[in-house]
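fold description:
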Amino acid sequence: MASGSGLQDFVFNADFSDSDLLKYANQGAIVHLEDYIDKYMPNLKAVFAKYPVYKKMCMDQDGHIWGLPWIEQLGTNKEAIQTVGNMAFINKKWLSYLKLKTPTTVDELEQTLLQFKKHAGELQKQFKIDGSIIPMSCIINDQDPALIINGFGKGYGDNDLDRHIAVSDDGKVLCTATQDGYKKGINWLHKLYTEGLLDKESFTQKWATYVSKGKAGRYGVCFSWDVANVDNLKDWEPLPALKADTTNITPCNASYTSGFARGKCVITSTCKNVPLACAWLDQMYAPLQSPQNNWGTYGETKRFNIFKLSKNTSGGPMLKHIDLAGHSPVEVREAQSVGGPLAVLNDYYNTYVTCPDDAAYRLKWIKDIYTPQMHHKYVYPNVFMTGDDTQKLSDLQADIKTYINNKRSGWILNGGIDKDWNGYINNLKKYGLSDYLKLLQKYYDKSK
């Protein structure tokens, strides 16, 4: 993209950030698409007509659309699948063997983890575990335990590990990592570490290591989008919202409009027939094609299939998910899905495609366990800033995010958050936290 020469007609899985879109737009390397969508993309145009919010989120401040979106609807508002990122899961086999109940408070979780540690030898022998027992494991700032500190203070937690923001009930954008509840939650996680309850490798381990220990059955509590990616499904259950000072789950920012990425695919300025490229890419938005792009296909004779072609209750064609037979959902899909621009809408399910089993049980967990504890009103929406503001936010966020995440890891490992707190707040001010929040507030107010 930077060279400007030898470009293909389009970049199918561009995954461009807002700054990428605006940078290449200003350089003339990509073309704006709103007129082409109206004339040559009936499938995407129909999605925009039904859900105007997605068209609005694709537009820059001048009304131009520079990228074709990826849209995945699974649930809506506080029941959308994206409202909770990394869930906390607890080992049901260990609870049953030790005759323990599922914890509902942070104190109960701590006592449960202590029991896992105390009875480590028995658990190893009973379940034939190769390797030491790990009461709780995670990857700090990635497969992170943020969900279990939502109950401290006013319950904002710190779910947005990129921006560290939430929206108060009076519509004010705040930094979650400067709240009193955050400080209490980090102190509590440090306590778990000093008691030998948190995996020592939580600060350095990569995904492959994390999964390998999970598959060996060594964890009592772990964190992931889906525990089936770390161990197996049947031996685990989600931890509910844990009470500390309060009981609350803060939904992930931008989650009410479900999965969305505005820069999934771009058409370059060297494309000689933009209408034809748009017409071809529009086929990716066809209701039977989008699920295949998103998850995988059917009819393969020499490899695993995600679907078989079936019929819906009206006799029309419908893609039916095949049982994954114990395989990790993410690994199976990565082997077959092509991604790219697509739209899978809520009303497609049981008409064009079945809901995947792992999404169905995750949606049920959210609806039954977490949605009733989502007490705050708002989440930060998906906004498209101007080029100058996008760059300003990116510059501010780079320093603020790095500083917060480094301090977060250090405090969980070594403690000292109370002693360091005033200096930490002052340093965030020096990094421009006030300007950062003002800029985010400006676009939050414009989005209403």
